[in-house]
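Ticket 4471: requesting a sanity check on a complex prediction with biotin. Repro inputs:
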Amino acid sequence: MPEMNLIVLTSVDSTNNYLQQLVNQELAAEGTVVLALEQLKGRGQRGKVWESHPGLGLYCSVLFQPPSWHVEKQFVLNKAVAVGVALYLESRTAADIRIKWPNDLMADGKKIAGVLIENNVRGSFLSSVIAGIGINLNQQVMSDQYETRATSLFLLNRLQYDAETEVQELFRFLWQVYRQLISGEKEWVEAQYMHRLYKQGTRAAFTKEDEVFFGVLESVNDNGQALITTDGITQPYSHPVVRYYASGY
Ligand code: BTN
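Returned structure tokens:
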């Protein structure tokens, strides 16, 4: 296991951007973690802003360089990161932790963490993977910016958390899962992901091109597509063309 090489920044635009610049200059090795106490342009999925105020959340980016990892297998890494964050959260709270496809983390049905993965590709292989992770730590009120209702560890446990301490624990879980994956335990990672898949096997509302439809999420394939059954037919759907309907909770 590589040592965590932790870089702590008081303020940055986005930890993903910062780590990408280090990668471009070949200044970052696997296991590098960039933690920022605040982000001025924190990025969420689908171009959204990830609010990143000092003292409220954990904002970090982690560098993985899986050996000879074909791009076709890239989503398995997303699954591994989501599972690592889930294990960390489970070590911190008794709330029911679920992974909402593709890789949002939910605690008792409310979003508590998000993951923004950015891959660098060389030929048909991943040269590096930047996993940006935002965890709600100390928020006492949640702003309405997220399309889902959200929560924080403070709201669950009435305790304050220090991002610099928490990132060490988070890294430990992430690396435990990652190590299993690259040592050939893909099935274990898949099983951990499936076991926590939010609303798996239950009827839920999804949107596709502004239309709402109901279906049952059966599983998530290696390409990251959700297998959803509607009217007895199961089909693969890609995110974000298809996603959970915001008010369908
Ligand atoms: C989501 O929309 O759910 C993903 C949010 C990811 C936020 C994290 S915070 C650290 C890293 N840097 C960013 O700019 N975004 C990610």
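Notes from triage: The chain is about 25% helix and 35% strand. Leaving this open until the requester confirms.
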